[in-house]
């Protein structure tokens, strides 16, 4: 009878160790997945920031380069309140 009780103790001990190992292994897998997800989210945010910086640089570059022609085009527009007859005549002469 003691042999049978020793086997039962061993059996339940192994079962308890298996359950403990399963929980600890699952926890380590979950933490690795959460860390990988956090890394992917950080990289995605970094890409969005870089795209926004590039778009801002392009918009600043376009506005600084296009400000002079826009003002001269506005001064040559007949309906504009900043109409400049001299700029219109110079524009026509430069086209010929």
Descriptive account of the structure:
GO terms for molecular function: proton transmembrane transporter activity. Pfam families: ATP-synt_E. Residues 64-75 have a biased composition (Low complexity). The protein has 96 residues and is mostly helical. Helices cover 90% and strands 0% of the residues. It is built from two helices and no strands. The chain has helices at residues 2-76, 85-95. The longest helix is centred in the middle third of the chain and has 75 residues, at 2-76. The protein is rod-shaped and about 115 Å long. The mean pLDDT is 85.
Summary of the model, kept short:
With 96 residues, the chain is mainly α.
* Oligomer description: single chain
Helix fraction by DSSP (H/I, runs of at least 4): over 70%
Sheet bearing the most strands, described? none
Overall, the morphology is rod-shaped
Helix/strand/pairing category: mainly alpha
Strand content: under 5%
Q: Could you list the spans in which at least 5 consecutive residues all have pLDDT below 50?
A: none
**What distance separates the N and C termini?**
117 Å
The arrangement of helices and strands along the chain is HH
Pfam family, one: ATP-synt_E
Family: Belongs to the ATPase e subunit family.
Protein name: ATP synthase F(0) complex subunit e, mitochondrial
Keywords: Acetylation, ATP synthesis, CF(0), Hydrogen ion transport, Ion transport, Membrane, Mitochondrion, Mitochondrion inner membrane, Transport
């Amino acid at each position: 009878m003691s042999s049978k009780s020793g086997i039962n103790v061993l059996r339940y001990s192994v079962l308890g160790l298996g359950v403990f190992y399963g929980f600890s292994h699952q926890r380590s897998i979950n933490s690795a997945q959460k860390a990988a997800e956090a890394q992917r989210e950080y990289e995605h945010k970094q890409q969005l920031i870089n795209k926004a910086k590039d778009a801002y640089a392009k918009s600043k570059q376009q506005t600084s380069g296009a400000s002079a022609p826009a003002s001269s085009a506005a001064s040559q527009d007949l309906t504009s309140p900043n109409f400049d007859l001299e700029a219109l005549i110079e524009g026509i002469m430069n086209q010929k």
